[in-house]
Amino acid sequence: MDASVKPKKKWKLKMPGAFTILFFLTVISVFLTWFIPAGSYSKLAYSHDHLQVTAPSGKKTIYPATQATLDKLHVKIDVDQFKSGAISKPVSVPGTYKRLKQHPMSIYSIFTSMVNGTMQAVDIMIFIFVLGGLIGVVKASGAFESGLSALTKKSKGKEFILVFMVAVLLAFGGTLCGIEEEAVAFYPILAPVFIAMGYDSIVTVGAIFLASSIGTTFSIINPFSVVIASNAAGTQFTQGMMGRIIGFTVAVICLLLYLHWYARKVQKDPSFSYSYEDKEKFDKMWSMDSTEEHDRTFTLKKKIILILFACAFPIMIWGVMAKNWAFPNMAASFLTIAVIIMFLTCFGKKDGLGEYKTTTAFSDGAASLVGVSLIIGLARGINMILSDGYISDTILYASSKVVSHMSGSFFIIVMMLIFFVLGFIVPSSSGLAVLAMPILAPLADTVHIPRYIVVTAYQFGQYAMLFLAPTGLVMATLQMLDMKYSHWVRFVWPVVVFVLVFGGGLLVAEVLMA
User: Fold this and answer.
1) What is d(CA 289, CA 11) in angstroms, rounded to the nearest whole number?
2) Residue 317: left if φ>0, alpha if ψ -120 to 50, beta else—which one?
3) What is the pLDDT of residues 130-142, one digit of tens each?
4) CA separation for the pair 215, 175 (Å, rounded)
5) Per-residue pLDDT for 15 more than 80?
């Protein structure tokens, strides 16, 4: 064989990046609005001591805010849930679906939806920018390198303990208060630690995003999913709680075993990593071995900086759980801590960076997360197209017809799969709850099973999809760590199958025991 003849390279399908995937999904969503029939349910909302129903035609009717009004509208929800603010989004009114004149979105809406979706996500974007700035200042101070050096010496041979603790913490955060988007705050601090311990990007996402999502999937008292869905379904969130506790316990144990198996494999043989081809890029992005020289001495000043930095996270969790903080509140708390650290970093005879370098470190850190912020906005633009094209309610109406003549165990399994599909269309847990529960939960009455089982089916179905759906938080997470979507799917698909199979088994057991 002639040595000068080079062998032909095998063509390999390359998975596009997050922005490209979302762009194509936006185009497909616009395309669907031309072919799926437009339609809408009447929407019920509480405002200024009265109930307002907006018909598909746009006509608005005012009703007194009483239980009798809700009973007349066949909305089986306690009126106090509206008055207290527990249900704040418009609720679909059963039996009011109407076909509308087709409302196809224009080609130009591909681009306007991207802009409008980004504007809708401005609160979380500001939070991410502040987080990036905070990380930038702490990294510039050299506190990360010094602290990480001390940590790796003490944790030698016990590396998985940290993964275990993080996963359990995030799982409880998910099941108790619905920590999802807030979890992005943990990547910049934990990615360098996991790299130093010999792990890869997938372990990082698994311990943070996957663990918090398992918690919300098998939520016990999460106010943004199980509680609001139970209210919208006309049932109490305490019903079925024991089954959810059992499911949560088993699911977290299985997740920890899966993470332990994968983490040990990667630690022993880095080439086993599903994202091994991007290892060098990931390590360069997040490793604390930067090109700048820092004194690795773990001084008192650096310890104070790391303590302040670490305090930001329990403060955030406390604010979400105890004070109902939204993203602007969380951003303000992070910014407060960032400013204090900037003062500490700025001044000092030996290790002071000065005003210019300190503020530049903050702006550079914020700039590094611009891509992550835009991903969140683009994903929301897709949901806006489906809503503005009036096809979301059509898909919901068709789903209700599919299960209307089923019974028993088959009914609840199909219901879970319907929520699996709807999770792609409406990735917001509270949004899907108020949209779908008033329509689908009453169908449980026709097959003589409790409505709380439909709420559980909603949890399992929607969140199994959100492990995968580009319209949810997945793409922002992968963009932050520069991980390929195909690598993530390879790791997470067994978890999706587990949720659907194990969750389906729990649902059937609840139906049989009801």
Assistant:
1) 36
2) alpha
3) 888 887 888 788 7
4) 4
5) no
Judge contact between 392 and 483, C-beta under 8 A: no
For 450-463, the pLDDT digits (tens) are: 889 999 999 999 99
> Which pLDDT does position 1 carry in this prediction?
46
Token pair belonging to 394: 């059509």
* H runs (alpha helix) in 142-287: 143-154, 159-177, 187-196, 201-205, 211-217, 228-233, 241-268, 279-286
Residue carrying the six token digits 């918690």: 215
Q: How far apart are CA 471 and CA 476, in angstroms?
A: 10
Residue bearing the bigger pLDDT, 99 or 176: 99
Where in 3-79 does DSSP place strands (E)? 39-40, 43-47, 50-54, 60-64
Amino acid at 191: A
> pLDDT tens digits for 283-324?
877 776 544 445 556 678 888 888 888 788 788 778 876 777
Q: Nearest to residue 113, comparing CAs of 230, 197, 208, 25?
A: 25
Whole-angstrom Cα distance, residue 178 to residue 181?
9
Name the CA dihedral angle for 278, 279, 281, 286, rounded to a multiple of 10 degrees: 130
**H-only helix segments in 389-446:** 392-403, 408-425, 429-440, 443-446
CA Rg value for the chain: 25
Classify 92 as helix, strand or coil: strand
